[in-house]
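Supplementary Methods, section 5.1.

A reviewer requested that the exact input to the structure prediction be made available. We therefore reproduce it here, unchanged from the version used in the analyses.
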Amino acid sequence: MSVTTAELAPSEPTAPPTETSDGLSPARRWERLALALLLLGTAAAYLWNISVNAMGNSFYAAAAWSGSRDWKALLFGSLDPGNFITVDKPPVSQWVMGLSGQLFGFSSASMLAPQAIMAVGAVALVYGAVVRATGSRGAGLLAGVMLAVTPVVALMFRFNNPDAVMVLLMTAAAYCTVRALPRASLRWIVLAGVALGFAFLAKMLEGLMVLPALGLAYLIVAPTTLRTRLVHSLAALVALIVSSGWFVLLTILWPADSRPYLAGSKDNTFMDLVLGYNGFARYLGKNHLGGNSNNPFELPEGYQIPEALKQGGFGGGGFGSGPDRMFTGEIGFEISWLLPAALVAFALVLLSRGRRPRTDLIRGSALVFGLWLVIDSALFSGMKAGMHAYYTLAVAPAIAGCVAIGAHEVWRRRAEAFGRAGGAVLILSAGIWGFVLLQRNSDWQPWLRWTILAATVIAAVGLLVLALPPAARWDRQRNRATTVLLIAGVLASLAGSTAYAAATLPQSHTGGSPTVGPARPKPSGPADQFRRQISMLMGGQTDPNLVALLEQTDTKWSAAIDRSSPAAALELASRTSVLAIGGFTSADPAPTLPQFQTMVRNHEIAYYLIPEVKLPDSWRVDKPADSSTPAQPNAPQGIWHPAGNKEIFDWVTAHYTATHHFGDMAVYDLTEPAH
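The structure derived from this sequence is encoded token-by-token as follows.
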């Protein structure tokens, strides 16, 4: 009991004389060195060969390129330097990458390096939050390591989606909340609100998913009256509204005809985008698809996609919904390695500190991370459609914080049966689940899963044996063995996640749905081949002859094409501004046909581009039974033009003739007189 009492001292209200002014014991030399190695190691690993990801997601890369060339494009997050339309997210991520491009010149490295540096910041913030919560720099180091070796973190902090900056800001808000808890600090809880405000400007409502956890933790734990806690919470909410609302107000006050269209919205307003396309419509699986009530994937009359090819759609996410979503498929590989252990750790801390005062900091900090994990995981599990596996990056800091605080609690009580048994359950939950995940990719490093399973089972069984009363007669040896088993078990439980993160780093990741781990063979069935064709079609084609043609233009927009992704790919290849008709899904009412006609008359667009795909004859539903029978005179010719805005397509094809055909792309010269 004397050991336990001594270790409790740092978390007691009365600080020992050796503590610094902020309540922490001075860092020892090895602790400072270990932190430096953690941060430098994270930076080195994440910055290493970062250009292997090239332009990453070309959709956001085009916006970063535009922001590096034009200040208005940077401010609004425009897809094109001509400022016709934005990307379908707020611009904070584009601010970072666009400014980097302005300072260092736009390139893969200048775009992606800030993302890797954000990983270092997130690791430092998780470390700081756990150290503040537990008074243990060892626990903080463990939290930082766990975050750095999470596969989805290794993936997305080297990628150019908005998720990296959003999660950095969410982690900053959690850090500020932990700082606010011991003294009910108005300043720190207001700073948490500011961080969440900018997280909202990174990815809208997803950036606020941590808000309920932080708010509840402060209301429950802060050592002041309920009235003061409510006033502080209201002040933090005001700070959130101000730090995010200024941009919303800017989009309202700025004349709509002199700023880009806010992609994803139905009426060119920011809040429609927040609550509709990127909000409840996405969560409930009711996102609109197809401009002007048309479906761009509708085949010509007389053709139909075979039923076998419809299975699985076009690969745009989903992964099913329900309580097991966080553990299955690609989501399981990206985030779930330590998820069972995090839930166990959260329960252990609540159980261990159940009789502590309401203001107990360790339990309060466990509420910050644990409620964050539980609430966000529940929301992800209930999301109906449009779910990408990398969205789960949002709970990676919560998992690291939960496990680290739980590990500290069982370490603090390692001289007791609770600490040994709790440590055994914690280690076993991580080890067994790591084995299960590696078993799903059984051809990759098969020795690793068995090593992890053996090491964690041995450590857990050893701890359980040491927790039995007969072992008390060898008290000194038991304490030493407990220490060794806890350390060995924790290290073994991290091995699976670390190996998968390490395998993720050297892989090239591009496109809209990157995946973690070692390279995997691509499925080769007919449905998979068809989905890849659709993906290439929607992602844009960059035929060298087409790129050369666009490079020679001197109009405001070198070309116009349906959907943002093809436009982005052409922008990056030609370094010219390309007008994206209808935005990301081709559903945005921009431009209207009259607006497009005005642009053409004003010689602002050089070319109109439309994919043209020859459909297999086997897709004909009116195909004669006798294949030797000649086709009917009016039978469809089998050329598919997946136009999102049919009005513009019909007008262009009625008044202009295709002058070039590059690959599967027809090119209409809009600078020629209309007929």
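The longest helix spans residues 475-504. These observations are discussed further in the main text.
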